[in-house]
Design goal:
By secondary structure, this protein is of the alpha+beta class. The chain has two helices and three strands; from the N terminus they run H-E-H-E-E. Helices cover 27% and strands 37% of the residues. It is elongated, with a radius of gyration of 15 Å.
Length: 100
């Protein structure tokens, strides 16, 4: 999932859209976090609020993994500058027992 998202409601919408599309007991979504130079990438407090909203709709956060590194990015007039980019891999499980 990649999108320019600026608030909790937008993240909640994006993540729950992934849940609806999955039609399974488990789904995962990878979201960008902690990238201060790109404000469209969600900070941790917005991610936490979105997770809470997804859990309120019958999904339980099963696990979270983070990954990332200092990737080069191109900036004028410099040829490139390393900038940290990190993502969170969220795995949700439905709390609805009747689903196969």
């Amino acid at each position: 999932m990649t999108a320019d998202v600026f608030g909790v409601d937008a993240w909640l919408g994006e993540i729950t859209a992934q849940a609806r599309k999955s039609q399974s007991r488990v789904f995962s979504v990878s979201v960008p976090v902690n990238h201060p130079e790109a404000p469209q990438e969600v900070p941790e407090h917005l991610l936490a609020a979105a997770i809470e909203g997804v859990e309120g709709q019958g999904w339980q956060l099963d696990s979270v993994s983070t990954y990332g590194a200092a990737f080069p990015r191109y900036i004028d007039p410099l040829p490139y500058e390393a900038g940290p980019r990190f993502w969170a891999l969220l795995i949700f499980r439905t709390t609805y027992r009747g689903q196969a």
